[in-house]
Amino acid sequence: MADKKIDAHPENKSYIEYVKRKDPKTNLLKTLSLAFLVGGIICVIGHVVRDIITAIDGNLDKQTVGNIVTAVMIFIGATLTGIGVYDDIGKFAGAGSIVPITGFANSVVSPAIEFKTEGVIYGVESKMFVIAGPVIVSGVVAAALVGLIYYVIGLF
Known about the structure:
Structural class: mainly alpha
Order of helices and strands: HHHHHHH
Number of domains: 1
Strand content: under 5%
Number of helices: 7
Largest sheet: none
Distance between the termini: 73 Å
Shape: extended
Helix content: over 70%
């Protein structure tokens, strides 16, 4: 049975009712719980990696250990995306899967995989930073501005 034609103006009461009928219902408690649980598990994995690295070489300073953990977590996120597992995690956990490090790796690898049929340059390399590119640019610009402000304040 076809729906009757609805005027698409948001002020139209029948349109609002139509949207409410069509909008998928979500269980907010379940969604938030899964996001919290999976995001927490990803963070725990990062801590375990940190503990393993520290156990292997206890002489490393915190910054070096942090850099190694970051690289390992990016590798894990990219690998799981490449074999199709990270998408399943995202479907299950929602926002819990976008914990910064692994979510960043996923946002770089996913478009590269999607456009690999376009070739290396026009597909993989040009699409790799479609999602992550604006985040990287914004971060670099923000860091430059904060550094400039810090420098100017330091002059006084």
